[in-house]
Amino acid sequence: MWSHWGTRAGVAAAAVAVALLAGCHPPARPASPGSPASPASPRAPAPGGTPTSAGPALTGPVVALGDSYTAGDLMPLGFAGAPFGCLRSSSGYAVQVAKALGALADFVDAACTNAGVKDMTSPQRTYLGTNPPQLSVLRPDDSLVMLTLGGDDIGFFNVLHKCMLLSITDPGGSPCERYYTRGGADQLAGKVRDEAAKIVTVLNEIRARAPRARVVLVGYPDMFPQQGGCWPAVPITDGDIGYLRGIQTQYNAMLSGAAAAAGVTFADTYTPTIGHDFCQSSQVKDVEGLIPTSLAAPFHPNARGQAAMAAAVLAVLRAG
Fold first, then answer.
1. How confident is the model over 21-45, as pLDDT tens digits?
2. Between 20 and 30 A from 116 (CA), which of 100, 124, 126, 134?
3. pTM, 2 dp
4. What is the pLDDT of residue 22?
5. What is the mean pLDDT of residues 255-274?
6. Helix or strand or coil: residue 215?
7. CATH class entry, domain 8-33+51-319
8. pLDDT tens track for 252-262
9. Which helix (H) or strand (E) holds 147?
């Protein structure tokens, strides 16, 4: 999610070694040609636990699409399907939802780290193999499709990198906000607005290819503290933390609007994770910071976060 930088090559090499030990399995479903300010929020799932739910009755396969927030980057890696460069995890929220609904036997995971809108309809090259166009796994008898998407199109991970580098130039100010709003226009807010039509197009295509499926567009959980920051653990100034929090809020609002425009369900994972941001203790946070304190990629949900996302999806499914 959000345009990765840094140690991906090393992660990929580690994945190869584990894959050789664990053994390899083909994808669950082959691709086919295209067709038509608050305190921490309380919640039930225990850290790393799988939410339980009676859930709706399913009559067809369950499908996971999207980026690394769906794939569950590095927590831990799973090897139920290729390519391993997608860094899919058996602890991702979509896997947890399928398990809670008793649908693991009919679960298809096409999500892939670094995936953006273009990777829904085009092959995506990874460090370890090529992921087919994600929408190619959809079938008319699918009963549930879940996806989190778009953060990589915005390039938010690279934005975080830039903000950290700029923090030393003005520790008491908002150097990153100044950088992205130079010239009088907010570049990030503009990217969020531009992404809306692309997300709606993807959702409409999903509905065309899987007309019987309940489609759930899953938002991004709270990453940033509601007040202040935690420099130098995450070296972003307090002022820029507020700016970036606003961009994330705008992005989730855009996703909610896109879901409404396409006639699909939106699962809000931001509200239930407020107060569980990357500045919190390891016992509280749902999203890791620059240096993870649990098995997860930097600035990605940990086991707690994925369980919270699964609980949010199950809640909207139960609500009808």
1. 233 333 445 444 433 333 444 444 4
2. 100
3. 0.85
4. 32
5. 98
6. strand
7. alpha beta
8. 999 999 999 99
9. strand 144-148
At what angle are helices 93-100 and 303-319 packed, to 10 degrees?
Answer: 50
Please give the Cα distance from 94 to 103 (Å, whole number): 11
The structure tokens 């460090």 sit at 127
Q: Extract the tokens encoding 129.
A: 């193999």
Closest to 218 in 3D by CA, of 59, 90, 92: 92
* Residue showing tokens 């396409």: 262
Rounded alpha-carbon distances, angstroms, from residue 295 to 72, 73, 286, 292: 10, 9, 12, 7
Q: What's the sign of the alpha-carbon dihedral 149, 305, 86, 155?
A: positive
Give the list of residues 6+ apart from residue 77 with CB closer than 8 angstroms, or none: 15, 18, 84, 87, 88, 89
Q: How many CB atoms lie within 10 A of CB 184?
A: 5
**Whole-angstrom distance, CA of residue 217 vs CA of residue 206:** 11
For residues 147 and 217, is the Cβ–Cβ distance under 8 A? yes
Q: List % helix, strand, coil for the chain (3-state, nearest 5).
A: 40, 10, 50
What mean pLDDT do residues 293-303 have?
Answer: 92
Q: Which residue in this structure is represented by tokens 């190619």?
A: 136
